Each structure stands twice: as structure tokens, then as C-alpha cells.
Prior knowledge:
The protein is of the alpha/beta class. The chain contains eleven helices and ten strands.
Amino acid sequence: MKPTERFTMSTPHFTHLDTLESESIHIMREVAAECKNPALLFSGGKDSIVMLRLAEKAFRPAKFPFPLVHIDTEHNFPEVIACRDKLAADLGERLIVRSLEDSIKRGSIVIKDESKPRNPYQSVTLLETIEEFGFDACLGGARRDEEKARAKERIFSFRDEFGQWDPKNQRPELWDIYNTRVHVGENIRVFPISNWTEMDIWQYIARENLHIPNIYYAHDREIIRRNGQLVPVTALTPPRAGETVEVLSVRFRTVGDMTCTAPVESAARTVEEIIEETATTRITERGATRLDDQTSEASMELRKKEGYF
Length: 309
């Protein structure tokens, strides 16, 4: 047998998911090595759950070199919050929760219309939390395929002393070399799964057998049809005059504030069925399910410039 044949036979098959996983772990370890006081933003959604598994692979059996942080709008789906708390407890990791309600009580957030989504105001509470704990880097689960503004952003995204992002002033990341230097008051948002797609996320969830909130799977739910999208009927999103309540089999492709997150009609009740469904969709995840992304005043790019994730 030739030496090259022996090498080929003994070398395991390195898959596309293995490549993405390896890159993400490298980025997390780079943050842990170069940053003084990082944090991992964790909401209990599918992308941040994938981030947890990557952190496990990067740092276990040691404790994570950063706490988990959630900026809670208080308008989240209860299934997601329950999953957030369970996973943090199961891992034995520190979970820091800061609420928009706290910022409202302090007067740093003033909401004039409670019927509108709270997502745009998360930037204020996030920046207050960064200042409170002195975080110099926040790891987030954003992906470039989610939305066009996120596609512009580097993996290491620098924010100035006001927490703002300038899309025209970003540092190069040639040969995957990352510059982590910041001045006092500045911080970095780091996105280890930037290069992943929605399909990659679901395939990884299947491979790793990850527990995720059950609202990601198809279930019967009361909805109303509004502006071409399905709106879940909740205490925060009741039917308006003239709207008809229907019961449909739906699932959520992404989860967030109940007032701005729409489900999609679906019969996919397993990970494998979701993967099949994802392979045929032609609408981006946020384009199909985020009501607040449709208005210019709540656009992702504007919110990121103001300090959003």
C-alpha cells in the first residue's frame, strides 16, 4: 500500500459543518484569548443555542470564559424564555438578564406606543449593560444570510464609545486575522456564525441533537392575517376590528418580540422535515417573519448604527 493510500484511509471525512464549526470555535477562542471581559448574548433562540454548543466544544470541561447575557424585552414568547433558563441551568453557566422594563423605570427608554415592537429599544438596554459590566466584546448569533445590513458587517464588528456602528469604517479581516484592539469605552460585537446559513443551523441542530423551543416546530395556533403575513394571537397582539381569527398549522423560523415575530404556515414537525422545507424556501428568514423589518424607521441598518446587536 502506498503512503498516500494509508493517509487517505485513516483520515476522517471532514464535512461542510465540520469546517463551519472549526471556524466558529477558532473565533470564540480568539475572543477569549484577546479580550479582557467578553460576554455571550443568549436569547434562547436556535442560533444562540447553536452558539452554546460551539462554546461547549471550544472550552469544556472548563467553565465558559464569559457569562451569558440576555436583553429581555419582556414581550418574548414564554417557551423561549423557559428554554433559555433551562439550558443555562443545565450547563451551570452564569446568566445575566437585563430588562427593558429596568431602562423604562430609569427613564432612559420612553415608549409612547405600547402596541409597537420593543425591539428597536433593545440597543439602549444593551449599551447600559455593556457599561454596567464593562464588557469589551459581545459574542452574538447573527448570520449574514439573515438580512442585507448584517451581510455588510465584519465578523469582528467595532463600535465606538457611543456603541455605534459605522458600515463605512470597518477593519479588514484578511486571511481570517482579527484585530481586537479597542480604546477605553469602545467594544466589539463578534459573530462566530456569520458564515452559516439557515440550512447550516438546522443541519447542525439535527447532527448535535440540540434541544430548542417547541414553537420552532409546526403546531396549531390561532393567527390573523395582516398585511400579507400571519400574526399570532396573543395578549399583546389581539385581533383588530374586522380581522378573522383562524387556527393554522404554523411554525416560527425565528423568534423575538411577540409583537413583531410572525410564523409561517408549515406542517414540518421534525428537524428533518424543517430541513426539507428550508431547502425549498425562497424567502429569507427575517423577510418572511419579522414585521418590524418592513419599516424604514426600524430598519436593521439604522438600528445597528444606534448600537443594536
